[in-house]
Amino acid sequence: MERIYLDHAATSPVHPKVIQVLTETMQNHYGNPSSIHYFGRDARQVVDQAREFIAKSIHANFDEIIFTSGGTEADNLALIGVARGMADKGKHIITTAVEHHAVLHTCEFLEKEGFEVTYLPVDETGRISVEELKKALRDDTILVSIMFANNEVGTLQPIREVGELLTNHQAVFHTDAVQAYGLADIDVQDLHIDLLSVSSHKINGPKGVGFLYVRDGVRLIPTVHGGEQERKRRAGTENVASIAAFAKAVEISQKTKPEKYAFYHKLKQLLIETLKKEGVEFSINGTLEQSLPHVVNLSFPGTNVEAMLVNLDLEGIAASSGSACTAGSVDPSHVLRAMFGSQSDRLTNSIRFSFGINNTEDQILQAAAIISKIVKRLTKQ
């Protein structure tokens, strides 16, 4: 049985060239970047080269990149660091109801510290209203965190409009770009983004490394204390090998972005059209027009998400009910709840499929046939 991996939004396989850089760096550049001897300077050069390349990928400056352990730490550092750093200017934060839990749970933590958080609603496509954001803005708003694209349904947010809205406001603008980076065009200058979170393992890099972009001049209080690494903003010896491998993954993703975007979009259309031909009843959660090309979330009336996932796995298909961070939970998706309400059947019958570098058109056709067979069997029952 061929196993077909359609859960790349949860994590992606590490690219062979990235693995090569990872192992070579472990073998040849093992010094501590903070050491002043040759081995330390050698490791520092590896980190600096990676930082320079990654900064250019989003049109940022070298010193504006902070390496972290991944997207979750980057989100935490952005929100907690800025909230504490700007607390003298206000204690109001704005985010959305469909953010990743790395943002939502951090906002809940900040509420316990005395900050007030406004959670913007979304429409049935998963997008916020810029007008609603404008109404929610206050003189004491210090931080606005709007994800670039949703990890469960793929919906792109109006990032440019948000950035423009905040240009004359004291609030700094953070976006979780973990799912979008590598496929969406991101220019932090053009989009007026002040902070941006990224994770390596979503773009065929190693797990356990990511970065936070922090615009020069943004006040940020460190959340990890120790040494003076990352210009005193994030203590801890840098993960040199993973950082080098991350940079290689970025290099590959940047070079192949146009062709990957077109190919993933084609796979999404192929899956949808094949399911229609098979006579399967389903609805798309989100929007095809304003979404990432590699993520599609489908509602199958008359089915149950747990039964669907188990049956798909037995047939060799790896998919998800949404965020991988809650994959072990049967709790309904907070994203779908925000989009359709707590009583909607979509909360219990929706599956996310997400595509990546190893997928082929033949795999999608095969997967669609299996999905059709399972849905028809479950709906008959």
TrEMBL record:
What cofactor is this protein dependent on?
A: pyridoxal 5'-phosphate
Please tell me which top-level EC class this enzyme sits in: transferase
Its domain of life?
Answer: Bacteria
- What's a Gene Ontology MF term here? cysteine desulfurase activity
Supply the EC number(s).
2.8.1.7
* Catalysed reactions, semicolon-separated: (sulfur carrier)-H + L-cysteine = (sulfur carrier)-SH + L-alanine
The keyword Metal-binding appears for this protein: yes
Which keywords describe this protein according to UniProt?
A: Iron, Iron-sulfur, Metal-binding, Pyridoxal phosphate, Transferase
All copies of the Aminotransferase class V domain together span: 4-364
Family to which the UniProt record says this protein belongs: Belongs to the class-V pyridoxal-phosphate-dependent aminotransferase family. NifS/IscS subfamily.
Name of the protein: cysteine desulfurase
Write down the species.
Bacillus smithii 7_3_47FAA
